[in-house]
Design brief:
Helix content is about 10%, strand content about 50%. With about 375 residues, it is mainly beta.
Length: about 375
């Protein structure tokens, strides 16, 4: 009997201790979140022979799939500590994304106060943030992500970042000591780790943002320059090689309808030569009913001094089954001129100079 009484007393004491600790613990919050999104896509002219392809895509559907952890701690005086760990993955195979990184989408720690936030680690940079409000299609499988795969993958390793908003004006910047440590290939892994002794420009990257948002409209301008180094992908095999993007993006709200667009000027100075191009896009997103939303966009890439021009037309219809689950269908058409070979679907293929039609249906769940 005495043992039972002692055990009960110890249990009550432990519960009381835990209860007393709750006010302190309430100052910290950690959340788990994610998106699982996939479907089936059909495209024509997937190779030089003009054959079609039917597949389950790996890179994206309406949104790239992900699993994330984020947390905040109140440090007092309006100061917060923050962290984000976010991994991307392929639903079709279960493989990791972003160059096989375990936390390839984001991996940073930050301090945030009245004068903005300072972030340290792998993080999305200002080019990524610039199109978040103006590009109505986002990283859809048929989108400007097909034309410039860097846009949905605009992240920087080894980066110091700042972002602050004051009376509607947003300013931000990132500086990376080595922009991309992975050599797995693709837009997310270009083998430029940097941090080389005696070469301060090797694999460095600088991005900057200035924007303004009101209730009914917003406009954002960005600057992004990345340097190369020995062994880096995309012809940036020297720290004298650069890939630079300057963008102007904006949107306006007409009731519940959003109209967004922008232009991205890109200049590449690579070992293989120089390339100048402009990417224009204009889209509209409108709710047809409480559950049904229509998004449509047209985009055009003009490679200056060549006949290579690509025009994208895409529409997406999304039906919300609940706040977290939706089904959707996308239809798109890519017209390639000259020797352009830009596929309609992100991560897909197309025959040189061939046009491509595609359709996709899928399901998305968010948690």
């Amino acid at each position: 009997m005495n043992k039972s009484v002692c055990g009960a007393t110890a249990l009550l004491a432990a519960l009381a201790c835990a209860f007393c600790m709750q006010p302190a613990m309430a100052q910290s919050q950690v959340a788990i979140y994610g998106i699982i999104d996939t479907g089936v896509v059909y495209t024509t002219n997937a190779n030089a022979a003009g054959q079609s392809a039917l597949k389950m895509p790996s890179l994206t559907a309406s949104f790239p799939s992900r699993l994330g952890f984020k947390g905040t701690e109140d440090l007092g005086g309006g100061l917060q500590a923050q962290f984000v760990l976010e991994t991307g993955f392929s639903v079709d195979t279960g493989g990791m994304g972003q160059g096989n990184r375990i936390f390839g989408r984001q991996s940073f720690v930050a301090l945030k106060g009245a004068y903005g936030a300072v972030m340290l680690g792998r993080q999305v940079n200002m080019t990524y943030l610039a199109t978040a409000k103006s590009d109505v299609m986002g990283p859809n499988i048929f989108s400007i992500s097909s034309i410039d795969a860097y846009i949905p993958n605009a992240r920087s390793d080894n980066a110091i970042g700042y972002l602050g908003t004051f009376s509607g004006v947003t300013v931000g910047a990132t500086y990376s000591f080595g922009r991309d440590n992975s050599s797995a290939g693709g837009a997310s892994a270009t083998n430029c780790g940097g941090e080389v002794a005696g070469n301060a420009r090797a694999c460095r990257q600088v991005t900057a943002l200035l924007g303004y948002d009101s209730k009914n409209y917003g406009v954002t301008s960005t600057y992004d320059i990345m340097y190369g180094n020995t062994g880096a992908a995309n012809g940036l095999t020297s720290s004298d090689n650069t890939d630079q993007r300057v963008s102007l993006n904006g949107y306006v709200m007409l009731g519940e309808t959003k109209v967004g667009g922008g232009v991205i000027d890109r200049k590449i100075r690579a070992a293989t030569g120089k390339t100048d191009s402009d990417l224009y896009y204009l889209g509209v997103s409108t709710p047809i009913s409480v559950q049904l939303t229509l998004d449509a966009e047209i985009a055009r890439l003009n490679v200056k001094g060549t006949a290579n021009k690509s025009t994208l037309s895409v529409a997406r219809l999304t039906y919300a089954l609940s706040k977290r689950t939706a089904i959707y269908s996308s239809v798109g058409y890519m017209q390639n001129g000259g020797t352009a070979a830009i596929p309609l679907d992100v991560g897909g293929t197309v025959g040189v100079g061939r046009n491509q039609f595609g359709v996709m249906g899928g399901i998305r769940h968010m948690f």
